[in-house]
Amino acid sequence: GFIPLLVPKEVIARWLGDAAGFRGIVAGAAVGALSPGGPFLNFPILAGFYQAGAGVGPIAAFITSWSIFGLHRILLWELPLLGPRLTFARLLISVPMPFLVGVAARAVYVRWLT
Question: Across residues 45-53, what is the average pLDDT?
């Protein structure tokens, strides 16, 4: 993939690797929330991250955060259609999800898939 050409593997492993622990899950969730575009853009990027040393937890947190908190979807769809109160309530309830999914994905991967 092209990701290792843009970002050195050492940087990806340090910030998103298994050794990054919960910090990697937080970083994955943050990048996922800010990532624009659809699955045709994000999944190849995630495959490149994984091949470059990113852990399963940060990748799962990225996917979950991207799905729940896509800033472009909130601004273009949720706020105009649902209004600020319902949008805020949904976002507030959803905050823990990327972190829970990241921790659970890493635990399942370590326990049953390695």
Answer: 92
